[in-house]
Write a structure and sequence with these properties.
Elements: H1 2-29, H2 36-63, H3 76-84, H4 101-113
Helix pairs in contact: 1-2
Length: about 110
């Protein structure tokens, strides 16, 4: 799975670099740069480059490998305590993740009934 993800991210980065290269080639070889057609082609290539370039960046952010400046960092225990609310210990699933509030309320209702 990871090798497939790396391959797809590599393809996305190559596509983004290819669209940026098309912008540069359009600027170099176009007889007049400021025509409507050339600006349209440049903008379409720029949008495509941003679209393909954002996919690997979002993947890196989700994995925690992309440092975001000025972002507050919480430890997993602090995040679980925030989700749990008051002084009650956090309700965790089988993998150790915090349970969503709606599931927590259903479990509390089942405990009241029994």
């Amino acid at each position: 799975m990871k090798s497939e993800l790396r391959l797809l991210n590599l393809i996305c980065l190559l596509a983004a670099l290819g669209f940026l290269a098309l912008i540069v080639l359009n600027a170099i070889f176009a007889p007049q740069l400021m025509t409507t057609d050339n600006l349209f082609v440049s903008m379409v290539c720029l949008v495509m480059a941003v679209m393909f370039g954002s996919i690997p960046l979002l993947q890196m952010k989700a994995e925690g490998r992309l440092p975001i400046p000025f972002q507050k960092r919480f430890s997993k225990n602090a995040a679980a305590a925030q989700v749990a609310g008051s002084s009650a210990p956090p309700l965790l699933d089988a993998k150790g993740r915090a349970v969503p509030p709606d599931v927590r309320s259903m479990v509390a209702n089942m405990k009241k009934q029994s």
